[in-house]
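subagent[fold] <- orchestrator: predict structure for attached chain, return tokens only, no commentary.
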Amino acid sequence: MKAVLISIVSALGALVAATSTAGCIVVFVDEPEMPKAMLNK
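subagent[fold] -> orchestrator:
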């Protein structure tokens, strides 16, 4: 039972990480000015 729970949690963690990474890439592609503005601050 614990092994199943651990695998589910790991899968959720991987999914969240993949989603946030994809979101960062989309923002970077959509608004290339944003990271530069953040770097200048």
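orchestrator: received. Logging for downstream: Residues 2-30 form the longest helix (29 residues). Helices lie at 2-30, 33-40.
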